[in-house]
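Intended use. Records such as the Histidinol dehydrogenase entry shown here are meant for training and evaluating sequence-to-structure methods. They are not intended to support clinical decisions.
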Amino acid sequence: MKIYQESLTKMKQVVKNYTQQTSDFTIEQQVREIIENVRKRQDQALKEYELKFDQTAIENFAVPATEIQQALQKISPELRQALEHAKKNIVSFHEKELTSGFIDTAVPGIIRGQKVTPLQRVGIYVPGGTAAYPSTILMSALPAKIAGVDQVIMVTPPQKKGIAPAVLAAAAIAGVDAVYQVGGAQAIAALAYGTESIPAVNKIVGPGNIYVATAKKQVFGQVAIDMVAGPSEIGILADDTADAAELAADLLSQAEHDRRARPMLITDSLTLAQKVSQQVDQQLVNLPRRAIAQAAVEDRGFIAVMESVPEMFTLMNEVAPEHLEIQLADPSQYLSYIRNAGSVFLGRYASEPLGDYLAGPNHVLPTGGTAKFSSPLGVYDFVKKTSFIQFSKTALQADLSDITELARTEGLEAHARAVEQRFAAERKGK
């Protein structure tokens, strides 16, 4: 891995070059055409795109409910136990995010409040591509179910040998209501606008490739989305108490996701930096997804050696990584130093894959620096909030002059008159 030993100012520019968001005009245009075609021609367009992109002829997009349930018998007992264990932890964590709104009656004659309502229907995108991701199904569907969403539907690219039993089994365990075999930008368009076979949803969540991410961005406004997710990232803060082999293994755990993944280490030890770089090279040799991981390491990975721990945290907050490991002595004391990160892993035994699969906090996280303003997927993503007010006559009359003053200052006479009309008869009586 590239090792940088520069000033904090120079490293901030290096980080910017590694993490800045970019757009591809050609992909933007291709996705726009796909969305418009699906919107107009619906199922027929989907069938043509699946044949073109996934080399699969689809007659019925919906996977039969019996096939989804039968998948539970096709997976190993060990995998089912792991999925059930993950579900238990995910549910126990996300149940704590539930909120019920509030009512404020502190002022006589005035009732104010907020009503929390689950979304009616949400769509989950589950990538197909180079790997199956049953964990993503649990992470996306279970918070929606906890929130009380009426219908959770899932789309995933078709496979020539059929959708992997692990994927369908995870859908069954998570309580997904329907599964449709369609992928790519065309699947996002179907969820946004609906087709003869696939119902339109209120919100689309879940990761995907650049075409999926671009499609989610373009349909935003027609539907809500969780985020525009980019390639996976891991940032590690470590000192010389950390184990170089373990750090390298954690960096590669994210590098194997995607050639554009970002493995990053920031340390105050040049010796550790050199050992980790050597370990990465050694561990790559026998990695099954070596080609993918090596491309990510060489093109998008780096190690930064800073002068102090405070500088390490300052730089990492600039990175705002999706996953952040703090592998320093007594790591919990540094939690308050973190301002920007999707999910934080404290200490040697909180290796990042723990969060991917089993710990409970969500693994659908902001990427590409968006952790500066975004949060992990949660129950709060599957509800909407509506405010309400009720005033008595006396309470409105007490505020009348201030309301009309503000309305007329803004040049909105009808606003002022609408409130005054409630007291028109009394004013005539005078």
